[in-house]
Amino acid sequence: VMSLWILLHLAFLGLSTILPWVQGSSLCKSVTWPSSPNLNSPLEVQETIQIPNNGSAPLLVNVQVFVSNVFNVDILRYTVSSMLMLRLSWLDARLAWNASAHSRHAVTLPCESLWTPGLSIREALWVDWKDQNPQARVDPDGHVELNLALTTETNCDFELLHFPRDKSDCSLSFFAFSNTAVELEFRAHAVNEIVSVKREYVVGDLKTQVLPRQVVPCFQVTLSLKNTALKSIIALLVPGEALLLADVCGGLLPLQATERIAYKVTLLLGYLVFHSSLVQALPSSSSCNPLLIYYFTVLLLLLFLSTTETVLLAGLLARDSVGDKISPSAVPRRDQRKENLGPNSEADPRGGKRSRRSWAEAADHAFFLVYVTSVVCSQLIFAGTWMWATCKSDPAPGKAVPHGGPRRL
Ligand SMILES: *[C@@H]1O[C@H](CO)[C@@H](O)[C@H](O)[C@H]1NC(C)=O
Ligand SMILES: *[C@@H]1O[C@H](CO)[C@@H](O)[C@H](O)[C@H]1NC(C)=O
């Protein structure tokens, strides 16, 4: 079931990379073309409402972006779901009227009856415009104000090196494909209106930027997301550390005790289960993988080493004692001597066996010291790496190219 689920996820991710440009609904349908475009008749084409003319300068459209919610951050699929409100305003002198002749302060018009910019979000997997027929408010001097609410799921390249203490910048690039940068220019600024803080990822900062050197007019909203989840630390780091500590303590059990092998093997088994669920919970990428993945792999190797050492030395000791028991000439004499002299006697004539046992114990002791040192060192190295490591993802191939949209307009 789990693998099926992952497969579904992969299929969805594949789909989303195929369809990175999901067109936001053209805000009003009759803006770009009449309902039945008849290119042979110039009259009908002229009937479509053209962008207000501002001489040689582009028309200036002010955009206020209100971010009201970031309700889902999926690091496995690299997506962010957010709710935004856009307030677009511009001047269309053709709509101005004589305020002293007509006393109305403002009128509300369905947006099909005037020119509006059509917006698409480059990173969006889907966009849900809340209002299919938004109304625009027009002032006597021709100022148009249009409010649009939308919910969208967008793709974002999270920087997960420091997961679960990661910070990422996710951007939403709005393009107006029906116009060129010569005709239209955006002035954008963003307002953080998020009221909910009960989130794993919180929006720390909000920036807007008008992308330079673009063929298509566009602006970009950048959300700085910060992971504040304590759950991952409790669910990942604490069990890992506890297992390591338990394993170090297991080294204090005497080598002869059979419980020690059982103890260590149980720990290793428990850790393997934990490790496989952990690997599924962490995303992977072509660069800047989470440091935790390396940390837990080192932990696995340490536990494996200590279990192997216990099994090897205990195996050596067991072979010794088996060898003693089946050696027929030695059996009665040794039993007698043991009774007389006690187990710790220095005068034991079977010095070979004693020295083998003490050799194994000395080796075990030495291994224990080395093991504790390497555990402490690995923790320190990890802490240092965590503090100082930075990672810059490989530049995206499309980053350097100015965005012309699907065709040169
Ligand atoms: C026309 O362009 C000028 C210069 O860029 C700008 O200051 C002005 O606001 C523009 N007018 C409109 C209606 O956009
Ligand atoms: C507006 O209407 C008033 C009254 O009818 C008139 O006196 C004035 O000239 C008009 N202004 C313009 C700019 O047409």
From TrEMBL:
Residues in Neurotransmitter-gated ion-channel ligand-binding domain copies: 51-195
Keyword Transmembrane helix tagged: yes
Superkingdom: Eukaryota
Organism this protein belongs to: Sciurus vulgaris (Eurasian red squirrel)
Boundaries of every Neurotransmitter-gated ion-channel transmembrane domain copy: 253-323
Signal peptide span: 1-24
Gene3D superfamilies: Neurotransmitter-gated ion-channel ligand-binding domain (2.70.170.10), Neurotransmitter-gated ion-channel transmembrane domain (1.20.58.390)
Residue numbers spanned by region Disordered: 328-355
Pfam families: Neur_chan_LBD (PF02931), Neur_chan_memb (PF02932)
Protein's recorded name: Zinc activated ion channel
